[in-house]
Amino acid sequence: MRLYFIFIILVMYSCSKNEGNVELEIVSDEILFSKLDTGRAKNIIEYKITNKTDCDYYFNACSFSKLTWKIDGLQPSNVFLQILDDKGIQAEYGRKEYLPIEKASVCEQINYDIKEKEIKELNYSIAPDYKDLIDKNNFLLKRGESKYFEILYYFPESNYSFVHLYKNKKYVFKMLIYSDSTDYMKFLPRPILKTINENKYKVYHGIIESKNNVPVRFVN
């Protein structure tokens, strides 16, 4: 019996030990940043995630995760974007306020109401926004597998944020991604839970920082 418990502990330790070997890499060569304070330099930011562990993972972008409290930066989805100067000091970020629900278009409100009704009919207690987050950002990553992603983002001003940089300084761009396994069984849809269970996936828990930085280039 003692040997059995030792074996179980070793298996769990092996998986958790390798959890740090999931790599996030920025594929794009550079980030464009408009010199105009209200400019919008377009960036298609490409990145990839590679699983170099012995575990198959499910990545869960939980919108109310406490892990996000530890990260500063711009958050367009399940990733965080950071811009740092040559001393490692982060840029100044500003976030635009979302429109209140009463100012949303009639069509948007109708679609929201339809989604909300469907979710209730399925006997879920999650909001439509959280359901959309799961559908768009959660993913499976098997051992030895790489997956590519891309984000459209504008600097210094996007639809949701703005960034202030000093034009006479040099900056680099980095990314972080998070996944939270806390109480995931309470919030994930039944088909996903069955997929995780039957295929013996492990829900990844932690923050992964990109292994590389790319330069920020000012453009007119």
Explain what you see.
The chain is an alpha+beta fold and 220 residues long. The chain has a single domain, classed as Immunoglobulin-like (Sandwich), CATH 2.60.40. 25% of the residues lie in helices and 34% in strands. It contains five helices and 13 strands. The longest helix has 16 residues. It starts with a helix and ends with a strand. The N terminus is likely disordered.
Which key phrases capture this entry?
220 residues; alpha+beta; Immunoglobulin-like; 5-stranded mixed sheet; 3-stranded antiparallel sheet; 13 strands; globular; Lipoprotein
What is the H/E string? HEEEEEEHHEEEEHHEEE
Count up the domains: 1
Describe the main β-sheet briefly: 5 strands, mixed
Helix content: 25-40%
Number of E-state strands = 13
Corresponding CATH architecture: Sandwich
User: Regarding quaternary structure, how should these chains be classified?
Assistant: single chain
- Alpha carbon gyration radius: 20 Å
Measured by DSSP, the beta-strand proportion falls in 25-35%
Protein name: Lipoprotein
Organism: Flavobacterium aquidurense
Summarize the structure in short:
The protein has helices at about 1-15, 105-120, 130-135, 185, 190-200; strands at about 20-25, 30-35, 40-50, 55-60, 80-85, 90-95, 140, 145-155, 160-165, 170-180, 200-205, 205-210, 215-220. It has about 220 residues and is of the alpha+beta class. It is globular.
